[in-house]
Write a structure and sequence with these properties.
3 helices; PTS_IIA_lac/cel; mainly alpha; PTS lactose/cellobiose transporter subunit IIA; single chain; 87% helix
Amino acid sequence: MEGLELIAFNIISNVGTAKSMGIEALMKGRSRKMKEAEDLLKEASTFMREGHKSHAELIQNEAKGNKQEFSLLLMHAEDQLMSAETILCLAKEMLYLQNELNELKS
């Protein structure tokens, strides 16, 4: 595997891991394990950065005139990138609210 396929799988792998960590962070928050939840979100952001780096590489190549053919695999990778981004943004907000709720219950 090389080229576009390798880049697409790199995006899918990294952002998939980040998305899973975001969901796991929400479950930790629900269990009042806020430090663990925050740590998961920090680690998830590392995986997101790697996914974004790979995506940026594709964009830079196209800007240099190296056009890629349409690829369902790349479309899937970009879809996963955006859904992971959304989940992590929402997870941060939901954990903030869960923390406030936990403080009210204390």
